[in-house]
Design goal:
single chain, mainly alpha, two-stranded parallel sheet, 366 residues, Tyrosyl-Transfer RNA Synthetase, Rossmann fold, binds tryptophan
């Protein structure tokens, strides 16, 4: 019998806030497509609460409250619990055993070189006193990925160093202890607009603390207000002025969200986005018109999601049921991997008959 290698997805988010439209184009939309493609044997979506605590140790309430928010966002965006397991990281103890063993294979210098960690240390002013758990979270993320035998990890480009580090750990483990762990591949978003959606103020990162995010759960009026006050090209003062589309977040959002049908429906003056951009660049197209179009596009894209969310919000026990089932399935998979890891490392003493027999012989047991 030829053994077909099973295809497994693992991905996740830190529950530190509701998910915004950047998460949607950057990962959530893709996850739903991958889920519905039927090409994957197993899909695990992790709510990485333990990782969130590595830099929110003094703020457990935030993490705790956001588990259900993130789960609501997942389900309303189209994650189907019949096809994808949604799990809570901290409820899988096997992950921490794996982390402990993997940490013997990673040097401090290697962690210090990890660009994502470097960057985050700077952003959080951790330079002088880095929490150990935060410093080593790339190892813990390698456990997340390998515990589920993930072959494919769909994440944003900021996670590339994490995947690189995971692959190194896998190769090191397999070379020391024998072929055991599955080496994962990263799957990046398709287009550059989806790589990272800027904030509504044009800043590179959309985030809660900057107040420049549009959330999946935002009501229509909030979305409209945020869109109408978006940053555009600061030199485009009059409608007749030529405008820039590069670095203009309104157009970046249109790159990410608009489809040809939206033009027929909401803005028939243009056949597609290229025509609209050309007019903007030539001059004669005002920001208000473009923003109104973007608002229509966003409203029509997110209305079904918002409606589903409102339905799901009425049954919180159901959300917990989904999380519990997903977590149980995940725990089984992680337990299987841990068992293989311990066997490979020869620390599965009670099942190691060869060891017991050898010692019986050595001591002359009958
Ligand atoms: N580090 C990821 C983030 O900040 C979240 C995460 C934790 C993750 N464990 C993971 C992503 C495993 C992919 C795979 O968004």
């Amino acid at each position: 019998m030829s053994e077909k290698k099973s295809k497994v997805i693992l991905t996740g988010d830190r529950p530190t806030g509701r998910l915004h439209v950047g998460h949607y184009v950057g990962s959530l939309r893709r996850r739903v497509e991958l889920q519905d493609s039927g090409e994957y044997d197993k899909i695990f979506i992790m709510i990485a609460d333990a990782q969130a605590l590595t830099d929110n140790a003094e703020n457990p309430e935030k993490v705790r409250q956001n588990i259900v928010e993130v789960a609501l966002d997942y389900l309303s965006a189209g994650i189907d619990p019949a096809k994808s397991h949604i799990l809570i990281q901290s409820q899988i103890p096997q992950l921490y055993e794996l982390t402990d063993y993997y940490s013997n294979l990673v040097t401090v210098a290697r962690l210090q070189r990890n660009p994502t960690v470097k960057n985050e240390i700077q952003m959080r002013n951790f330079e002088a006193s880095i929490p150990v758990g935060f410093f080593t979270y790339p190892i813990s993320q390698a456990s997340d990925i390998t515990a589920f035998k993930a072959t494919t990890v769909p994440v944003g480009e900021d996670q590339e160093p994490m995947l690189e580090q995971t692959r190194e750990i896998v190769r090191k483990f397999n070379s020391v202890y024998g072929e055991t762990l599955v080496e994962p591949e990263i799957m990046l978003p398709e287009s550059s607009a989806c790589l990272r959606l800027p904030g509504t103020d044009g800043k590179a990162k959309m985030s809660k603390s900057l107040g420049n995010a549009i959330y999946l759960a935002d009501e229509p009026e909030d979305v409209r207000k945020k869109v109408m006050s978006m940053f555009t090209d600061p030199d485009h003062l009059q409608v007749s002025d030529p405008g820039k589309v590069e670095g203009n977040p309104v157009f970046t959002y249109l790159d990410a969200f608009s489809r040809k049908e939206h033009f027929a429906q909401f803005c028939p003056d243009y056949a597609d986005l290229d025509e609209m951009k050309d007019h903007y660049k030539r001059g004669g197209l005002g920001d208000v018109k473009v923003k109104k179009f973007l608002n229509d596009v966003l409203q029509s894209s997110f209305e079904p999601i918002r409606k589903r969310r409102h339905e799901l919000e009425k049954d919180i026990p159901y959300i917990y049921e989904v999380l519990k089932k997903g977590t149980e399935a995940a725990r089984e998979e992680a337990a299987d991997t841990l068992m293989r890891v311990k066997k490979a490392m020869k620390i599965d003493y009670f099942n190691d008959n060869a060891l017991i027999e050898e010692q019986m012989q050595r001591y002359g047991n009958k």
